[in-house]
Write a structure and sequence with these properties.
The structure is a single chain. With 400 residues, the chain is an alpha/beta fold. It has 2 domains: 218 residues, Rossmann fold (3-Layer(aba) Sandwich); 152 residues, Response regulator (Rossmann fold, 3-Layer(aba) Sandwich), CATH 3.40.50. 42% of the residues lie in helices and 16% in strands. It has 13 helices and 13 strands. Strands 6, 7, 8, 9, 10, 11, 12 and 13 form an 8-stranded mixed beta sheet that branches. Helix 3 packs across helix 12, helix 6 crosses helix 7 and helix 12 crosses helix 13. The longest helix has 21 residues. Keywords: Amino-acid transport, Signal, Transport.
């Protein structure tokens, strides 16, 4: 398809006049002429290791599906680096993927801070990056030329959750329990802004914020309990959110729980179990992504994932899958042109109403880097097929 492997290393060598020599010696780039390498990254260690594992698994399944179907004239490959959800390590991860591996494009970043750090590095270095998971609005406002997001931002998420909570529960007092990291702080800030706009008379209880990895929730939750909130918004990393919910219920906080997107991760579902029954949260896919989905392609996808990894895909796994589908669509739109950063940017900008099956279509443009603007509110119901599974019994509460 392409005259040469035109990854980052190939481009650098071409500019230095060394491409011919390197090719003759068998080096240069990450593979042969008919390969396109995705440089994936996410947390595989630390408190949110489950997020990176889910994203990697979903992305890898997409790579295998695309290659098996023969959708492209090239073979997709992916390497996946651990960023430990640490923005300070983004530089090292970026250099490994861009220089050592010779990736053609970046994809990943399950944590807001590390994804944003990578976005700034990639854009400054002229490398294209597709972010399937990060929710901060800074990923696309103002637009970064080389950075594209397929995720609904946290501001939209917060406004939808607040609207639903006000209409459904009509609370007089609301509270927040959350991880006091960039993700949690930004989510709570957005929700408070939405409350101020939509219901300025609602009382906000003392916050219960906790650092990642803590095992002590009692002191903060007692203050929240004593304020007697009618609704509590919960946001946090998967390994903390489940124990946080368990501690809240044990202390007698019987308010209606409303969850941000991290509610629908495998780690949260494992650790909270039946305590998530009747809890409503924000999710990204407006179709039933389960093994009994009415959409056969979606049902087959979830079955293949469970067969391969032993569990149903969570939201982040689906985002990883979708991210690779978007990259593959961009490769198709290259129509034989070299996968240079400039050509990849134009190809991504030309994507309109691209159906990834598990959510509303993705659309980009010259000044539009936010491919998805709609999600769904879902309530988990009792009687799910497994307490460790998202799928089995839920209802759509409201859509944007």
């Amino acid at each position: 398809m392409w005259s040469k492997k035109y990854g980052r290393l190939g481009a650098a060598l071409a500019m230095s006049g060394l491409l011919t020599l390197t090719a003759a010696c068998g080096g240069g780039g990450a593979g042969g002429d008919d390969e396109f390498l995705i440089g994936g990254f996410g947390a595989l260690t630390g408190p949110v290791a489950g997020w990176g594992e889910s994203q990697r698994n979903g992305a890898q399944l997409a790579v295998e599906d695309i290659n098996k179907r023969g959708d492209l004239d090239v073979e997709l490959k992916m390497v996946y680096e651990d960023d430990a959800c640490d923005p300070a390590g983004a530089q090292a991860v970026f250099r490994r993927l861009a220089d050592r591996e010779g990736a053609d494009i970046l994809m990943g970043g399950a944590c807001t801070a590390s994804a944003l750090a990578m976005a700034k590095l990639a854009d400054g270095d002229g490398m294209v990056y597709v972010s399937p998971t990060a929710t901060t609005r800074e990923m696309h406002q103002p637009p970064l030329k080389h950075v594209f997001s397929t995720q609904v931002d946290a501001t939209t998420e917060a406004h939808e959750l607040v609207r639903m909570a006000l209409e459904t529960y009509k609370p007089k007092t609301v509270g927040f329990m959350y991880n006091s990291n960039d993700y949690g702080i930004a989510a709570v800030k957005s929700a408070k802004e939405a409350l101020k706009e939509q219901a300025p008379d609602v009382t906000i209880a003392p916050e219960a914020g906790f650092p990642e990895g803590t095992s002590e929730f009692t002191s903060g939750l007692i203050k929240l309990r004593d304020a007697k909130p009618d609704v509590v918004f919960a946001v946090g990393v998967g390994s903390d959110l489940g124990p946080m919910i368990r501690s809240a219920r044990k202390l007698g906080i019987d308010a209606e729980l409303v969850g941000f997107s991290s509610l629908f991760t495998t780690e949260t579902i494992r650790t909270a179990g039946k305590l998530l029954d009747n809890v409503t949260g924000f999710f990204y896919t407006p179709v039933r992504v389960a093994s009994d989905s009415e959409d056969k392609e979606v049902a087959d996808l979830t079955k293949r994932y469970k067969e391969k990894y032993g569990e149903w895909p969570d939201g982040i796994a689906l985002q990883g899958y979708e991210g690779v589908l978007v990259i593959a669509e961009a490769i198709k739109k290259l129509d034989g042109d070299e996968p240079t950063p400039e050509n990849l940017v134009k190809a991504l900008e030309s994507i309109k109403n691209f159906d990834v099956k598990t959510r509303k279509p993705i659309t980009f443009g010259p000044n539009d880097r936010e491919g998805a603007t709609e999600g769904v509110l879902m309530k988990l119901l009792p009687g799910r097929e497994e307490t460790t599974s998202l799928w089995g019994n839920f209802e759509i509460v409201a859509t944007e």
